[in-house]
Task: inverse folding
């Protein structure tokens, strides 16, 4: 899991948003969210913008979360 992927999981969990709900909000499949969170798919700037908006934070906030243990 990469740092931003972990940050997405943490933020999503805090907000009690499922992968399905996040996927719906940004217009992708749930399986794609899973791949992003595990670092198996790269994140581009447009996707980071969409995800951060859906999670109610700034894109740079996703890089400030603690790393996965």
Result:
């Amino acid at each position: 899991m990469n740092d931003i992927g972990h940050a997405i999981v943490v933020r999503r969990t805090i907000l009690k948003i499922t992968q399905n709900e996040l996927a719906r909000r940004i217009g992708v499949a749930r399986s794609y969210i899973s791949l992003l969170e595990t670092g198996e798919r790269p994140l581009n700037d447009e996707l980071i913008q969409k995800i951060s908006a859906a999670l109610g934070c700034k894109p740079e906030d996703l890089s400030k979360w603690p790393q996965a243990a």
Remarks:
- The radius of gyration is 10 Å.
- The chain has a mean pLDDT of 90.
